[in-house]
Amino acid sequence: xxxxxxxxxxxxxxxxxxxxxxxxxxxxxxxxxxxxxxxxxxxxxxxxxxxxxxxxxxxxxxxxxxxxxxxxxxxxxxxxxxxxxxxxxxxxxxxxxxxxxxxxxxxxxxxxxxxxxxxxxxxxxxxxxxxxxxxxxxxxxxxxxxxxxxxxxxxxxxxxxxxxxxxxx
Length: 169
Known about the structure:
The model has no long low-confidence stretch (mean pLDDT 94). The N and C termini lie far apart (31 Å). The chain has one domain: Metallo-dependent phosphatases (Purple Acid Phosphatase, chain A, domain 2, 4-Layer Sandwich). It has helices spanning 15-20, 28-42, 60-69, 87-92, 156-168; strands at 4-7, 48-51, 73-77, 97-99, 103-105, 109-111, 125-128, 141-143, 154-155. By secondary structure, it is α/β, with parallel strands linked by helices. It has a five-stranded mixed beta sheet.
């Protein structure tokens, strides 16, 4: 059975993110290699991964070389650092699908880069990135940034289970 994963904010090639987020790497190259290994440790060839933005700071050639190393079908929802490049640029870089806007998954989960405003009366869950090591409290938000999952995409069933466990508390 093919699995579905979610992840956000790799910032491949972004040396300064190491200091901004206290990532445990000496260089962007070391970070990139680790993140590729972590991705492939959990994602199989036929799995699907929703990347919630801020994927790469490299040019198209280097970005494509990274995308080609990553297992799974890759769906990119553009983040604030991705939007300077066209949808076609990202497709040419190897993504299977690209969305400029948030998408609704399974009629209940809103996948976006930036967290969306969710009031307590809304029944939906916003799975997002953008805020890195910060977290919003409550049942309406799930932060999929790499910092929370040792740089591994998180399985959608694990997200669902963690939200159900929160609801029971």
